[in-house]
Amino acid sequence: MYKTKNDLSENTRTAVAELCNARLADAVDLQTQCKQAHWNIKGPSFIALHELFDRINEQVEEFVDLIAERGVQVGGIVSGTARSVAARSALPEYPNASSGHEHVEALSAALAVFGKNVRAAIEFCGEFGDADSADIFTEISRATDKWLWFVEAHLQSEHRWASR
Predict the structure, then answer these.
(1) Domain span at 149
(2) For the chain, how many structural domains are there in total?
(3) d(Cα 66, Cα 144) in Å, to the nearest integer?
């Protein structure tokens, strides 16, 4: 840990820096999964999903910076290299997908796990008395839920209404 005049205790700063590294790995992995879907999408919904996946990627890129910068602000060293991300990410492995449905399933699964982990991070930061980090993760959680809704909408089409 680097010395800082930040008034959070060293114990809190160490815990938050470790948390930021864990969620950073997830965020970088999510970003690459968005691009994987964006590049490889095929099918009748190509353009809509191609553009949606790119928009999500752009937002996740902002998450990456928020999380990494917070880790450094509290005195930590963040690790966002491909090797460290691959070793640390809690997201499921992205499948070899091509159809729109396969990509929507895979990306919605990744967004759901990411959202769950971010919500746990909010609680963790609250337990350590770091309201600022909790606020950052709350912002990320709200946006992640929105993107999950957008992606899952492609799975929740007419079949729900057909059963009525």
Answers:
(1) 10-158
(2) 1
(3) 14
